Amino acid sequence: AQSVTQLDSQVPVFEEAPVELRCNYSSSVSVYLFWYVQYPNQGLQLLLKYLSGSTLVKGINGFEAEFNKSQTSFHLRKPSVHISDTAEYFCAVSSGGGADGLTFGKGTHLIIQP
Amino acid sequence: DAGVIQSPRHEVTEMGQEVTLRCKPISGHNSLFWYRQTMMRGLELLIYFNNNVPIDDSGMPEDRFSAKMPNASFSTLKIQPSEPRDSAVYFCASSYRGQETQYFGPGTRLLVL
Asked: Among A74, A89, B5, B10, which one is least packed by beta carbons within 10 Å?
């Protein structure tokens, strides 16, 4: 069985400040890791994914994440946030990539303050 | 590419009525997923198909829920009879087996009164 824990349900941050959204996972097998973003009243959009190889993964909109196997973490970071980054962010895990279902964390609401 | 298409976008119905949600995956994709999003439980996988065959339906809450994929370009999720606790946003997603990215539709917001 797999599980994902997003430690913060809400993260307020000032515009142009850096941000880190935390994600820890639990799995008995090798996993693929994902971060999705959901803007209000919309579906989910993939930000980035870790499959194998380099543990530092770069995604869209200036986001990046680092896979840490020993700490079973996949934290999302951005060096400077913008008002438009206000959204819900979901960490997800899969054991089979795109062919298997995703297990999601509860989400982190990123609130950008001007 | 039109992306994953879901219909209706919003549905309001009364308890006991049958509800049918529809999904058209991205052309060429051969895996299709149904998820449900609620405030209490977050995003949950309900069922998924590979090449139109249901692979894992362990997330389907109970017998009132059923899903079909009669062909590669269409899937339905049916709730009969519906209950107020079924109120949620239902997402459909598709992917190409062998690639890792699931593409999500805009969702159907269901309210059961």
From this structure: B10
